[in-house]
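Q: Got a minute? One more chain.
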Amino acid sequence: MPLSAYLADLLEEVRRIEGGEVATYIPELAKSDPAALAIAITALDGKTYAVGDADLPFTIQSVSKPFLYGLALQEYGREAVLKHVGVEPTGDAFNSTVMDEVNNRPFNPMVNAGAIAVTALVKGEGYKARRQVVLELLSRFAGRKLKIDEAVFHSERDTGARNRVIAAIMRQAEMIAGDSDEILDLYFSQCSVLVTTRDLSVMAATLANGGVNPISGDRALDAEYVPDVLTVMHSCGMYNYAGQWSYEVGVPAKSGVSGSIAAIIPGQAGMSAYAPPLDRFGNSVRAIAASKRIAADFGLHAFRVAPNNSAAVRAEATGLAVRSKRARNSAEREVLAREGARIALIEAQGALFFGAAERLVRRIGEVKADWLIVDLRRVYDADAAACALLGRQFAKAKPGSLIFAHAQGRLAEALAPHAHANTLFADRDAALEFCENALIAVEGAHGGPSRFALKSIDLFAGLSAGDLRALEALAKPFVFEGGQHLVREGEAGRLLFVIAQGAASVQLTLPGARTVRVATIGAGGCVGEMALLDGSPRSADVIADGRVIAYGFSIEEMMALSDTHPSLLLTIFANLSRDFAERLRAANNEIRSLGH
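A: Always. Here it is, folded:
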């Protein structure tokens, strides 16, 4: 998939970045491999793209803070939680002892003091029960059962002097209630839960999905409180680098001193990155670089992206149900009826941003067909992410196998550099006609009769040899150059034309002088046959697409011929009825498949 290939390339690019130091103030964290590196993105239907050491376990550390904050909001409500912890950013370090003295509370839940205050709110009968509540909460977000790394827990508890000072200050100021040692043990436990980069991307996607885990379908957090969590993450999640992160990356995120970052693309996806070396703020150097690149390449900044339309695929069909407006002879129709499934059509819709574009590109990669048409007529907007993903998919497709129709604006510009011959079409009908022609040619049934023979014309099928000889005597040759009219709308219907070579388009003129093609008639096809039925004036223009050689038959002479050949018109009328029935059946199949 294009996104997998993109992440693989990005991983190698980020791997070359140097700098940072593995956290050593917690002895167990000092054992982390500084070369470990992983990136993951999870879509809102649970599809995860992961590269590098994505399944390598590490402790969640401070990335646990947003999830515990959400739990507190859900258990107590906003007003009650605000009495214990604020939502204001602070320029101090994450383990600062500075508090909001005016309101007698920590500044926000993303710094250690605020997180300890939030942990103190976890409900449960005793330490073990509360520890289980924390573990079950984080497991719901991850979509699998998580466990605590006891070695890291003991290492944190044994070396957590700074956090003990913070807790003592808060206990003295009555910011927290209860046994501060037990509260700290619970806090150290939540930081010591083992996760992987893949897990964090799922946890982030759960917040992006309004609190519902995209894999399990379980609700991990009430939707009402998801905006609260994302807001605090956006303003405070990266400690005293939060402002720069918000400016450059622009999505809610939380970092942890084990080297991970979890970021949320609301309504679209969750992403995560892991690399142990940290900068001076306690954030992963390489994880920040990867996040910046992804946000820049796909235009993910929160104030740049419009709301996403998740239903990117409106409808799908194959060449068995959807046909072009090109009239086909019986041999060609037989091929399309037998092999039409080798042509596939995806109709996209709405605004394509990262989440919707990822789903569309993934679906394109899943469809098994020799020719796949992606109809973009109903796509009204596309951002940098959609252009990048569709461009990558187009570039890697087998030449001629992936075809786009109705590409406009930025999408057209993004696709053009990767286009092969006959892979970008102005409309779906032209794309369908091309694919049908290619399929018919592969099956050896392309084109109409090699020479003019009435018995090979579907309209005259079933006529006796005597009828055919009599009819052939009425044929008069005509030559039309490209752009010339075979018939004009409103004219009297005096001639029926059989095309021997070339093709002509049937066009209707709509209000405003706009014209629309309703059919294309090729070699072996007939034009003006309706005049046989009712003698009414022509109902549309028929214009030669290029040089057309045709044979004309006088309607009046054909009617007169039926006096001596009574079965002639009956057979022709039967053929016309069958043709009309086939057209109606094809139209019904298209409506059922595409909904219009």
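A: The longest helix spans residues 567-594.
Q: Perfect, thanks.
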